[in-house]
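Lab notebook, bench 4. Still working through the backlog of constructs that have no structural model yet. Next entry is a single chain of 129 residues. Request: give me the structure tokens for it.
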Amino acid sequence: MLELIGLLVGVLVGILVPWTIPSQYSLYVAAGLLAALDSALGGYCARLEKQFRLSVFLSGTIGNAAIAAFLTWLGQKLGIPLYLAAVVVFGTRMFQNFAKIRRELLTSKQKRDTINQLDIVSSHREDQR
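Model written out:
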């Protein structure tokens, strides 16, 4: 729930605050945003699997952002859009993490439904006695 509130506050601040990013930094910001979203989805996925570790999350977030910034910088120096490598990798991992999260949430809902059905069946049997 806290994650959802943070997301909503961030979106509202982004919409309501009249702030623009200079065009020379737009590729860096885009790569950084993708790195942050990838890390956030990866962290949430790890949390659902009960494997979340803050040190892994923070080092991954900082490392992803640094690699994305470096690729963007190097690509601009060479005149090659190397930032696309970060876009492809982060985009792929975001879709994979989203699929894991979706499966985990659906599986846990199905387990809850099965348990509730078993409770109904067992209470029905007790009523028949």
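Notes after review: The chain has a mean pLDDT of 87. Residues 24-121 form one domain. Flag for follow-up if needed.
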